[in-house]
Design a protein that fits this description.
By secondary structure, the chain is mainly beta. The protein has no helices and 5 strands.
């Protein structure tokens, strides 16, 4: 995935078929720390691993 700008924090994304929330942007959007709820965990994922952006917080 190539983006003009990083996906903002608190955006909901789909990664590996699961939805999670971006809690930290790394290396200007090359990687993201994503929090998942089932099972509870935080994974670092590369931008190319994000399958979809489900929701972006208002004002972003």
């Amino acid at each position: 995935m190539t983006l003009a700008e990083p996906i903002p924090e608190l955006s909901v994304v789909r990664v590996f078929g699961q939805q999670g929330t971006i809690i930290h942007v790394q290396r200007n959007g090359e990687a993201y720390d994503v929090e998942f709820s089932n099972p509870p965990r935080v994974d670092t994922v590369l931008a190319r691993e994000i399958q979809a952006v489900v929701r972006v917080p208002p004002g972003s």
